[in-house]
Design goal:
heterodimer; A: 326 residues; alpha/beta; Rossmann fold; six-stranded mixed beta sheet; four-stranded antiparallel beta sheet; disordered C terminus; B: 272 residues; mainly alpha; globular
Chain lengths: 326, 272
């Protein structure tokens, strides 16, 4: 459904020194440098797939999404969405896709969402009866009722986002690009949007590419994730595999009967903390079973727990370092 | 075509509904418009007050660039009509293009399966300007017979055609300026300059010094906006003038479309 091969996008940005002197120098002698926002990106999405698109701010997520929608022309590489070349923005292509941006809205601020929906219905060439049928169906899935007849400015953020989704899906697109659809919503509203998206995907078989800052969105919806780092693909596969790749170590928590000296524990792994009887160790995955067996043999252990470090922290950690970690 | 027609009806329906949310605004707009017209009629009358100070009217012998008081009133009427059309249609739509670019909502427009220039040019209406248009028509209907115009079907059709050409020229110029906001996000000021230049169209072009007259005809085609339609209403438009106005309208409209396509190519290869 979506095919991306060796996709690149470079921008020219002005290279300007700060301050008045820099501004003047820039005015006389304009210099620019090339910044690559997306580098050699390749992936494919099959029809009906729901894929999470992860990356730090500025990693190139939005640039990629805009290239997939046809809003930005790629510098090089190939993009096909639903069999079309997005940048040509043919009508048949535009009728198959939708873009939802969490921080931008298309609904008319002063009017009830229903008015915006009627405009969209006309733009997409839907008859009144058909439009009404779809609105009723989607409103039911989104749990929207009288909100549709209240001016948008009087809706809560969560209600507004649900109405935005309705407006974006009225034409039954088969490819959904969702850029932070749950941004700023409270936990309940996030959960409702999430369950709606899962429901929509199940009912219509639409292909969904979703970016989000909330890991919960990704874990709940996307069996597969794409992680990009500095414009290049870092991981394509299951979320669990990503954890293994990001965190080749597991965390072992021990509660000992008697306090042990840090030196005695050091050979078993990287010692995170050792406070009296409570000990936290990072142990490489492949040595985990051996180390645990040795620990149990050597010390008197009251309690033992093995866990993965939380994935948000791992991705955060990855993005804080310029280089890719072990 | 059906899709565009229905879309246009929905656009204007929602625009009217949106405006009526704010009743006081509509009232203020009406007052501002009435005050504006009174002001320009007063300025115009100053040109026609004879040296002895008696009021303008039938006895006035002064002429403005060869135009009598009633004839000049027709120009004023055309200007009022056009300014009303600008307030009703051009300003609310084309003014919003800058906002679309700045806030990134242009993306939503570009992703709709409909011509983006059509969307941006017809999305909304400000009905307060309609009364100004009505006032303009009223002024023309009052002044034209007094200036000796014979309102025959052919003359009326030519006049309507010239008014339309004037509107198309104004739209195209305005759209060109608004589209340039893709590069210079703050073009709003430039459109205000255009509007100020338009006010030159309150008076017959022949009232201006020759150099300025040339500028107002060729560079800023203000002459085609008000003077030429007024000539047509008064039955004085020559076929050459009518042809020139039509060519001018066609050229400027094509230019606006070509320029928009060019601007979009830039936008889509540069935006983030």
């Amino acid at each position: 459904m979506i095919q991306v091969e060796r996709l690149c996008k470079t921008y020219r940005v002005a290279a300007k020194q700060p301050g008045l002197a820099g501004t003047l120098r820039h005015f006389v002698n304009r210099r620019s440098r090339e910044v690559s926002a997306v580098r050699e990106l390749s992936f494919r999405l099959e029809p009906g797939e729901m894929v999470g698109f992860l990356g730090a701010n500025g990693a190139g997520k939005t640039t990629t999404l805009k290239m997939l929608c046809g809003l930005i022309h790629p510098s090089s590489g190939l993009v096909r969405v639903a069999g079309y070349e997005p940048q040509r923005r043919q009508r048949a292509f535009l009728e198959q896709i939708t873009l939802v941006m969490g921080q931008k809205q298309q609904l008319i601020w002063d009017l009830p969402p229903l008015d915006s929906l009627r405009v969209n219905a006309a733009v997409y060439g839907l008859g009144d009866a058909e439009a009404q049928r779809r609105i009723t169906e989607l409103a039911e899935m989104l749990e929207l009722g009288e909100e549709l007849t209240r001016p948008v400015r009087k809706l809560s953020l969560g209600q507004r986002m649900k109405a935005e989704l309705l407006a974006a899906l009225l034409h039954r697109p088969s490819v959904l690009f969702l850029d932070e659809p749950t941004l700023g919503l409270d936990v309940n509203a996030q959960a409702r949007v999430r369950s709606f998206l899962a429901d929509y995907n199940r009912r219509t078989g639409a292909t969904v590419l979703l970016t989000s800052h909330y890991m919960a969105d990704i874990t709940a919806l996307c069996p597969r994730v794409l992680l990009i780092h500095q414009g290049a693909l870092f991981h394509d596969g299951a979320l669990d595999a990503l954890a293994a790749r990001l965190a080749p170590c597991r965390q072992v928590r021990l509660e000992l009967a008697k306090p042990a000296a840090p030196e005695a524990l050091a050979p078993y792994g990287e010692l995170e903390s050792c406070e009296g009887q409570a000990v936290r160790l990072l142990v490489p995955r492949e040595r985990l079973t051996t180390v645990v067996a040795e620990l149990l043999a050597r010390f008197e252990v009251l309690d033992l727990e093995v866990s993965d470090p939380p994935i948000e922290e791992l991705i955060g950690g990855l993005f804080q370092q310029a280089a890719v970690p072990c | 075509m059906g899709r565009y027609w229905l879309t246009l009806r929905r656009f204007w329906g929602t625009a009217l509904a949106g405006q009526l949310e704010y009743q006081l605004n509509v009232l203020i707009d009406l007052l501002a418009m009435a005050a504006n017209l009174a002001g320009s009629l007063f300025i115009l009358s100053l040109f026609f007050i004879p040296a002895d100070g008696s009021a303008a009217g039938a006895d006035a012998v002064r002429r403005l660039g060869g135009w009598s008081w009633e004839e000049a009133l027709v120009v004023q009427g055309v200007y009022t009509l056009l300014d009303g059309a600008a307030s009703t249609w051009l300003r609310p739509n084309l003014g919003a293009i800058v906002t679309h670019v700045r806030e990134g909502t242009l993306d939503f427009v570009l992703l709709k399966p409909i011509d983006s220039q059509f969307w941006l040019s017809s999305r909304t209406l400000a009905p307060a300007g309609l009364s100004e248009m009505a006032l303009g028509v009223g002024l023309i209907l009052w002044a034209a017979p007094r200036a000796g115009a014979q309102l025959q079907p052919v003359a009326l059709a030519v006049a309507a055609l010239m008014l339309l050409a004037g509107l198309v020229i104004l739209y195209s110029l305005w759209f060109l300026l608004a589209a340039s906001s893709i590069w210079f996000v703050k073009t709003w000021n430039a459109t205000e300059v255009l509007r100020a230049a338009l006010t030159a169209g309150r008076f017959p072009v022949s009232a201006y010094p020759p150099g300025l007259r040339l500028l107002l005809t060729l560079v800023l085609p203000v002459a085609f906006l008000t003077t030429v339609p007024a000539e047509a209403i008064l039955g004085r438009a020559t076929p050459t003038l009518v042809g020139a106005a039509l060519v001018m309208a066609l050229v400027s409209f094509s230019l606006s479309r070509a320029f928009w396509r060019f601007a979009l190519r830039y936008y889509t290869s540069a935006s983030s």
